[in-house]
Specification:
Structural class: mainly alpha
Mean pLDDT: 84
CATH class of the largest domain: Mainly Alpha
Distance between the termini: 55 Å
Strand content: under 5%
Number of domains: 2
Radius of gyration: 26 Å
Number of helices: 15
Oligomer: single chain
Length: 294
């Protein structure tokens, strides 16, 4: 019997079983790769948490020891007693929420206009918005600072939020998501007498909740970890956010790495809680990013 005749006698069931095994092997391989990557990403986080309960003299001398030996909670007690950590923490919460809400509002409005309104130069405007993302932020620091000085916004919440609120990637993200909204739905609402503001707030925003939740998490995380711009804007120590406050603990003569590790560990908690609270919408938003690309 020839090889061709042997191949022709293979049943469809055998072919399906073979494809199923190949698919299973591929899934297991991808799972193993992601588990390895997750482990590598968790190592610095684990080291930070471990260093936060170690005395200052053992943070680097025992850096290769990944076991929780010689632990103490004195770092956390001194963190709250020696520096205004709670004040920094509250400033970061207020500023991050303000930045994320303002940015999502502007990006949602801009994305809706670019997705659902036909006007001359729409695509050119979108390209210019995306090109602005390629400009390094360091080149914009001086013009932005001059603007907030002339507007009297130095050392204010508005001065820290407003120059960064119109995020190019956020506008593009919302535009791509809102392309999936049916034009017939909006036209029917217009026939019923709905205004353009009603279309946006009553139809576009509820449909775009996964994308909005995704941007809320991303923007809150971006500002929470932002050091450079708040460091430039704020002058008063009582208005500094957490990232700026923790940076003041690392001085030339006495770097308090024990307090920095303790403060950084506590700083990760709100972002984790926010992600867990909005994780379903977060995943749906990223999953639908490519919907309606035109």
């Amino acid at each position: 019997m020839s090889a061709a005749s042997q191949y022709s006698t293979a049943s469809p069931t055998d072919v399906q079983v073979s494809r199923g095994r190949q698919f299973t092997v591929s899934k297991i391989t991808i799972l193993v790769i992601f588990l390895i990557l997750a482990f590598l990403f968790l190592i610095p986080l684990y080291w930070m948490v471990l260093s936060s309960v170690r005395p200052l003299g053992l943070i680097f001398t025992s850096g290769t020891n990944m076991l929780p030996t010689v632990t103490t909670l004195d770092n956390y007690s001194r963190l709250f007693s020696s520096v205004p950590y709670l004040n920094w923490f509250a400033n970061s919460v207020v500023q991050s929420l303000g930045f994320s809400i303002a940015s999502v509002t502007i990006c949602a409005m801009g994305g809706f206009a670019l997705a659902k309104y036909r006007f001359r130069g729409r695509n050119t405007l979108l390209i210019l918005i995306l090109l602005s993302q390629m400009i390094p932020f360091y080149l914009l620091i001086i013009p932005l600072f001059v603007m907030i000085v002339k507007m009297g916004l130095v050392d204010t919440l508005v001065g820290a939020i407003l120059p960064l609120a119109a995020h190019p990637i956020g506008i593009f993200f919302m535009r791509q998501y809102m392309l999936s909204i049916e034009d017939e739905l909006l036209d029917a609402a217009r026939v019923d007498g709905a205004s353009e503001y009603r279309l946006f707030f009553s139809i576009a925003v509820p449909i775009s909740r996964p994308a909005i939740a995704t941007l809320l998490v991303l923007f809150a995380l971006e500002y929470w970890n932002n050091l450079l711009w708040p460091l430039i804007v704020f002058r008063s120590p009582e208005r500094m956010p957490l990232a700026v406050g923790l940076s003041t603990l690392v001085t030339q003569y006495y770097p308090s790495y024990d307090l920095v590790m303790a403060g950084s560990t506590l700083a990760t908690v709100p972002i984790i809680i926010l992600f867990l609270f909005l994780r379903r919408q977060f995943m749906e938003g990223f999953g639908a990013l490519g919907t309606g690309i035109k």
